[in-house]
Target: assimilatory sulfite reductase (ferredoxin)
Amino acid sequence: MTQTTTPARPKRAAKPNGQWKVDGKAPLNPSEEMKAADNGLNVRQRIEEIYSVQGFDSIDPEDLHGRFRWWGLYTQRAQGIPGGKTATLSPEELEDRYFMMRVRIDGGALSTEQLRVIGQISKDFARDTADLTDRQNVQLHWVDIIDVPEIWRRLESVGLHTTEACGDVPRVILGSPVAGIAKDEIIDPTPVIAEISRRYIGNPEFSNLPRKYKTAITGHPSQDVVHEINDFALIAAQHPELGPGYDLWVGGGPSANPRLGERLGAFVTEEQAPDVWEAVTSIFRDYGYRRLRNRARLKFLLADWGTEKFRQVLQDEYLGYALPDCDLPPQPTEAGDHSGVHEQKDGRFYIGLTVPAGRVSGSKLLALADLVEAKGSTRLRTTPHQKILALDIAHDQIKDFVGEARSLGLEAYPGLLKRSAIACTGIEFCKLAIVDTKDTMIDAVAKIEERLADHDGKLPRALSLHVNGCPNSCARIQTADLGFKGQLITNEAGEQVSGFQVHLGGTLAGRENGEAAMGRTVRGLKVAADDLPDYVERVVKNYSASASEGESFAAWAHRAEEDELK
Model:
């Protein structure tokens, strides 16, 4: 008897990923269709000639919910909508008729003149709102579309702009806040940042990327630009033959699928850096995954390719030459947030000021500009840690400057938690948020520091507390000692309340822990917003009781028993 066999079913063809160099440029989702139909940069003309004249109701929905981002504009959350509605309402139902506007500040460099212009715009057009972000930008709220052309005119009159501050584009370039002034700087990244910005920002060749694309460049040994969570990063390195230059990292990003960037083991000279940026960005543009938005960041391509293939494609297809190998730069020996008073290489001083939750105001920015000028300076820097630095302060002006800044709510010597506390925009203005962040964090930090003031046990040298209003991790919760991700939780009374999932022991490369690591989550551990001070006090005291001598909080949190973390 002859036995028949069923023929093997042919393998189902893999769906295309929307990689331009592999699958062609046919758009595979509505976002790609929008970008293919009209470049986001082109919407500026419509804003100036139509929308600002005819008002909010004249705005084409595709521009409103898409291309406006290319010019730093998002509709903000309508007031009074609770967090429980975030996932159930459409963007149109969630949004207000006003905008968040993001002022792009590549490298964080600001003059007092520029700061004063931002402050006056805030007072005139944004209800005196202003936030310092953890990407060195300034965000304004309550912006009316009819005022946008005048805001642009004022910003551009002093060399500022909002070009590609949002959208599927190269976002703001993070730069060392002490570039060009630090005594121990290895290489000044200012020329590289300026050249990348000049060549590529607003360039149509790079204004349609698969998703947002983040850059960080530093020449300081503290590695002060959170390079491990950027798509493209250069950190200072010394080559034995070529001298000072940069170590190349790619593919980092937090959000709902966090991934730390990886070294390609390649050394980049100052002269090569803009070309290498163009090449890596072109790889993302040409090979990045465009079909699914949740897989459209460079980190997913790197995960599939690996660093060896990525470097090979970079050199063979895009640069046309091999990059020298590079050793891992030394571990930082100091904090990279630049809080406090520090001597510059010219003998003057820079002073790092902590701004609670990054929340300032136009009035406060104007007052700070006046203060800096009164002490003989005209230069400031924003930081990736929601701080602002005043540069070029003479030694005999330090005491007065610190005291007068404190009267503005800007602290040069913040407490343990206030120094490293970061919060995203939260439910006050963000359409994605579920809970309040800034007020919650400011209140919690004040209470915790008061309770720990008389604590007799040991406390960590540093302790970062980051609060985020949704899973997207704009406040980098996975890389904080204490990271809190907003969500609605059910309390013991059965009520649905604002709360947080907890991430513990995250860290970026630094003096505390060496290598970067994502935080640990404890199954079932959630904290109500009202209980946040109690929780942090409890877990810090547990650390105090059981950490070994010199052990950082992050190291302890990764080895502690679950009961100690609850």
In short: The two ends are 69 Å apart (CA to CA). The chain has a mean pLDDT of 95.
